[in-house]
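Why this split exists: single-chain examples teach little about how molecules sit against one another. For that reason, every record in the complexes split bundles all components of an assembly together and asks for one structure covering all of them. Below is a record exactly as it appears in the raw files.
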Amino acid sequence: AQSVTQPDIHITVSEGASLELRCNYSYGATPYLFWYVQSPGQGLQLLLKYFSGDTLVQGIKGFEAEFKRSQSSFNLRKPSVHWSDAAEYFCAVGDSGGSNYKLTFGKGTLLTVNP
Amino acid sequence: KAGVTQTPRYLIKTRGQQVTLSCSPISGHRSVSWYQQTPGQGLQFLFEYFSETQRNKGNFPGRFSGRQFSNSRSEMNVSTLELGDSALYLCASTPIRGGDTEAFFGQGTRLTVV
């Protein structure tokens, strides 16, 4: 069965600093990978997704992620963090067979942004 | 285009009761999945419905059930509620099963069992 590990439970950065959130997955074939963001009490909003092709994917709000097969990683990056980026971030992998309807999520990384 | 709509947003129930949550997917989306989110276990897949049939089920007891109607709207039911069922229940819809499309999530229903 696939699994997702987000090693950092909580990260604090200063506004304007760069950000990298780590995600490692375990999956037997080419995965479908996603990053979602969740504000308190809200649902999940998709930031970006990787299905195939270019390993560097661009998302909304200035985020990007790089798929590295050799490292089984899909880390999320942003060059300059804004206070509104404070939220919880979830990495997810699609079910075996590459589906979008049965996702396995990491435990999430809570991002705090200091002014 | 309206997003995924979940009702109600908040619920308080007593242990032993049952509850029904509703999810209306994005128009045209035919697959609906349900997830439970708790601080301890994180986000866990409950089940998925497509064409009014349950196609996948996660590792949850039989007290958790669901159904899908011909208009793709879905309901999930939890019977004999336990304190541990307190969670945010999220519904997601996708236009097709699999393929290069993502799941779109609703705002969730916050269930509190007292």
